[in-house]
From TrEMBL:
Coiled coil: none annotated. Residues 8-44 form the SWIM-type domain. This is SWIM-type domain-containing protein. Keywords: Metal-binding, Zinc, Zinc-finger. Residues 79-102 are annotated as: Disordered. It comes from the Eukaryota. It comes from Characodon lateralis. PROSITE patterns: ZF_SWIM. InterPro entries: Znf_SWIM. The keyword Zinc applies.
Length: 136
């Protein structure tokens, strides 16, 4: 316990979004270390305790907007990228494309045969695979 404590800092937006964090330890030269994580954890716990004991959460605080989701549904992408992806999906919904008909599939396979290329998919399809059998 003779070592001096590491200096830890973090940039946090008023909304609660952590923009950056750093520590003076050796591990923090490339990535955020456990000192930064512990500091953020302690800060979050302090803010939660203060909110619970002093007044109801503010309507725009991150705590009041937080909802519980199954782990499989949580997006771990950066918030700005997640927002952009969500905005793109709401503006341009993905069209529903029906599967091809049997006639369309036959036209596609016939087109592959007439191209002259030996497509691997044809080697497993009845009516097209005979060209791929070896004549030994």
């Amino acid at each position: 316990m003779n070592e001096n404590p590491h200096a830890v800092w973090a940039v946090i937006e008023p909304s609660g979004l952590v923009v950056s964090g750093h520590c003076t330890c050796m591990a923090s030269s490339d990535v955020a270390c456990s000192h930064v994580a512990a500091t953020l954890f302690a800060l979050d716990a302090y803010v939660r305790i203060q909110q619970e004991t002093s007044s109801p959460p503010l309507s725009n605080s991150p705590r009041s907007r937080r909802c519980v989701e199954p782990v499989c549904d949580i997006s771990y992408s950066y918030p700005n990228k997640r927002r952009k992806t969500t905005d793109e999906n709401t503006r341009h919904p993905t069209p529903v494309i029906p599967p091809p008909t049997a006639e369309e599939m036959k036209q596609f396979y016939d087109g592959l045969v007439s191209s002259g290329a030996k497509s691997v998919i044809l080697s497993v399809l009845p009516g097209y695979c005979e060209e791929f059998t070896s004549s030994t």
